[in-house]
Write a structure and sequence with these properties.
Low-confidence stretches: 46-63, 138-160
Structural class: alpha+beta
Strand order of the largest sheet: 1-2-3-4
Number of helices: 6
């Protein structure tokens, strides 16, 4: 669920229906307008009906494109963007021209690019993973940007290269995230059914291990930078877990409920509001928040800093991984709920918040505590481009991932008590005796 992507030469932000990119090579800001493929398909159907003689009225306007995730290729030449409108677009980072787009059957949930920058992997809502080649469309230095290309929007979209997706693997549940090892030997996927699967790549039918232990959906999984033997995951059960993924062994677990005591009222107010709207909410919403995402920064192979975000909680929780230990070191309360976080290459924490006037904040980790950097060029960028950061909603609502819980034991015990009471009443002659059996009269 990467909504901030930090690369060597640029930083990309998911901003509602577009992507805002700050290019450090020329200190310029680019706005990548992602094509709405649902509008394109609706227009094609409309044109087909008119050709067949069925004159229809105006086409209903579909919802704006919402960006789910952005990923930069390791070589820095490509930027892949996944949107809700069942499409993944690939952009050239040298000229910021749109190279091509991929139409998907289902909405993409997560994307990742292999370490050799040759293949794009896409996980969708139905639980399938597809791969698309990237090297077939090399970036051209003299290719004009999308805004300078001739022709209207429809004509430019027709020139995009069509690539047939290749199915790689599938889950029986909605996929929420995926990653691939640096040597491209294993692909790691996590889903709504609490599972983390480690599969060989590209022969993904060969499963190496399962990492089992979470009790709710797994929202994110990622390899530790500078240490590809371990992965970190977070879940709707409120925990962060450190794994040896080849053995499927949980090495450490941190329960965020221990750190949210003073902040839990923010989430409880939300749950109370949802309960007032619908009684059915009580069947699946828990009384503690999910861990929705995290960001990793490695100062060495043994020491890693983790910034984690909890659903509906206006704070950033900082953890440290040393060897195979995972411990909470501090909590930074914020004025508004953070949307996403990412570490810069120099070790500063970038926070995108639900604030209209100052959406971007930057923090430094000093003596295990986050200290805000007031004068920073990213803060100024957020103020200048604030109208872009406030557009659209923020990705996936975690409420839809919880499963309804039924207390079958309580229903059974209640019916058992009623049956015993009726049998006793019949024995005492208070009610007529009811004969049981198929042939009873």
């Amino acid at each position: 669920m990467g909504r901030i992507e930090v690369a060597q030469n640029f930083i990309a932000f998911c901003c509602g229906n577009n992507v805002l990119v700050y290019d450090g090579r020329n200190s310029e800001t680019q706005i990548l307008n992602v094509p709405n493929m649902e509008e394109k398909h609706a227009a094609e159907k409309h044109t087909t009906k008119e050709t067949n003689g069925n004159n229809t009225s105006s086409i209903a306007s579909s919802n704006e494109t919402q960006i789910m995730s952005v990923r930069a290729s390791p070589d820095g030449h490509y930027l892949a963007v996944a949107s809700e409108t069942k499409a993944v677009t690939v952009w050239c980072t040298r000229t910021w021209a749109l190279l091509y787009t991929h139409d998907l059957v289902k909405r993409p949930m997560a994307i990742v690019i292999t370490s050799d920058s040759s293949t794009l992997l896409v996980a969708d809502k139905s639980g399938d993973v597809y791969n698309f080649p990237l090297k077939g469309c090399q970036p051209q230095d003299d290719q004009p940007s999308l805004s300078k290309q001739k022709g209207n929007k429809e004509e430019r979209m027709k020139t995009l290269v069509k690539v047939t997706p290749k199915p790689l693997l599938g889950h029986l549940s909605m996929l929420l995230d995926l990653t691939i090892t640096e040597d491209s030997k294993y692909i790691i996927t996590c889903d709504r059914d609490e599972k983390i699967r480690v599969s060989h790549y590209p022969n993904s039918y060969n499963i190496e291990a399962f990492c089992l232990g979470h009790r709710e959906f797994v929202t994110q999984v990622d390899l530790l930078p500078k240490n590809n033997q371990l992965i970190l995951s977070c879940s709707g059960d409120g925990t962060l877990r450190l794994w040896n993924y080849l053995k499927g062994e949980c090495l450490a677990c941190s329960d965020t409920r221990e750190q949210t005591t003073t902040l839990l009222h923010h989430y409880q107010e939300y749950v109370q509001q949802k309960n007032e709207e619908s009684e059915e909410i009580k069947r699946f919403l828990l009384d503690y928040p999910a861990v929705k995402s995290f960001a990793l920064y490695s100062s060495s192979e043994e020491v890693h800093s983790v910034a984690a975000l909890l659903d509906r909680i206006p704070a950033v929780f900082v953890y440290r991984i040393e060897g195979i230990t995972l411990k909470h070191i501090s909590t930074k309360e914020l004025e508004a709920e953070p949307r996403s976080v990412a570490w810069s290459l120099s070790g500063e924490l970038i926070v995108l918040q639900e604030k209209d006037e100052e959406p971007l904040s930057v923090f430094e980790l000093v003596d295990d505590n986050l200290q805000e950097v007031a004068e920073h060029w990213l803060v100024s960028l957020g103020k200048k481009q604030k109208h872009h950061f406030t557009v659209g909603h923020d990705g996936l609502n975690l409420d839809v991932l919880y499963k309804q819980r039924y207390d079958n034991v309580a229903d059974y015990l209640k019916k058992k008590e009623e049956r015993i009471a009726m049998e006793k009443a019949a024995k005492d002659g208070l009610i007529p005796l009811v004969k049981k059996g198929r042939w009873s009269k």
